[in-house]
Amino acid sequence: MLRLLFTINLTILSLLPSMSFAHSNLEEPNLYWASITAETKEKRTELVNQGFSIETIVEDTSYGFANQEILDSLKLQGFDVKAEFPAAEFIRPQDFPNNDSVYHNYAELTDELRKLVAQYPKLAHMDTIGKTLEGREMWVVRINPNVDSTFEQSGTPGIVFMGGHHAREHLSVEIPLLMLTHLLKNYNVDQTITNLINTRDIYFIPQVNADGSEYDIESGSYRHWRKNRKQNDARCFGVDLNRNYSFQWGTGGSSTNPCSDVFMGAAPFSEPETQAIKLFVETRPNLKILLSFHTFSELILYPWGHKYDSISDARDLGAYEKMATTMARWNKYTPQQASDLYIASGDTTDWSYGTLGIFSFTFELSPRNMWGGGGFYPGPGAIQTTFNANLKPVLYLIDLADDPHRAVTAPETTLFFRDQVTKL
Ligand SMILES: [Zn+2]
């Protein structure tokens, strides 16, 4: 049904260029979906700088969200805003509990994690890394048979997977949950996975932004919410958590407008959610790789996001490129430096690589685009196929946590090497 609606709405969009719609009755009446011509990454960055949240790019057109004021301002500056559509019209009521009931809300995720950990008490440890603004727990599950808790220090190579920075990206919560489940179920079943678990320190934080995620679904209709639930002023809520990290914070590709979908926050690490991630990562010096799941577009992104220049350390850059292209063979995503799309400063991966040297990736999961794929709400069928596509990349990264440079210096020692050299 959702696919059909997207198709219909896009048809309407293309038929009614630059038509404006009256506000609807949604709680966020001012949010619009728009398409704007921007032929280069520099022009796309300019759009984001002014508060337009780009969600997908097709040739010379960027599609995304902004409020009416931002769109009006862009038009005044001569940007070709080809079409705009209230988000409320664009996204018809979708029922998370019914149509998408396999997706986990906060309570269901909490239950599921508790059950899993209870099932594998010697392997898995669960704790909270902090509370969200509204007081929900930010759960972490650690897979490590050689420690007794989540916080015991480990000398073994560490890796952390995160999901759900952005509220409406529900698939990015399901994938780390499924990966975690798969690893536990295959301990002492699958030799590769058993070896990895015995020699690595593996963490999952599947839902960074539980407040936003709950807000997105609580009415029974998707709200297309992205940010956390900070009240910025009398009118506007939410900080974009993936623009709130400190490294080169506020240097482009984010907005000072508290109503923008890419609002950077009042200060770096102003939000409890990003503070909790900061503390978690900084207190685990054995972490060597970080993967933050987002949706959508099917991309494998690596630093930098805050500038167009590539990483200056040639050895690191070589490893990033090799890892990204290798993983792309398996999931068929597009590997690239994040800023090849447009500038985005204050994200998780620039921070974790820029300040701590942790090899950090963002996966933009399925679908590839809005059309035919469902955008942020791809339906229950996307969960298993996205998991299948990303299992090898995830195992490959876990293996490389001892030394990511091994991807280049000794590729024959990395997982699935035969796949890497043969035609798939
Ligand atoms: Zn995202």
Write the layout of secondary structure elements.
Layout: H1 2-15, E1 31-37, H2 41-49, E2 53-58, E3 61-67, H3 68-76, E4 81-86, H4 87-90, H5 106-119, E5 124-131, E6 137-143, E7 158-162, H6 171-185, H7 191-199, E8 201-205, H8 210-217, H9 272-282, E9 287-295, E10 299-302, H10 314-331, E11 334-337, H11 348-356, E12 359-365, H12 381-400, H13 406-409, H14 417-421
Parallel strand pairs: 7-8, 7-9, 9-12, 10-11
Antiparallel strand pairs: 1-3, 1-4, 2-3, 5-6, 6-8, 10-12
Helix pairs in contact: 6-12, 10-12
This protein binds zinc ion.
Zinc ion binds near residues 165, 166, 169, 242 and 294.
In short:
This protein has 424 residues and is an alpha/beta fold. The chain contains 14 helices and 12 strands. The chain has an 8-stranded mixed β-sheet with strand order 5-6-8-7-9-12-10-11, sandwiched between helices. Strands 2-3-1-4 form a 4-stranded antiparallel β-sheet.
SS content category: alpha/beta
How does the overall form come out from the CA principal axes?
globular
> How many domains comprise the coordinates?
2
Could you give the order of the helices and strands? HEHEEHEHHEEEHHEHHEEHEHEHHH
What is the rounded distance between the termini?
A: 34 Å
List how many beta strands DSSP finds: 12
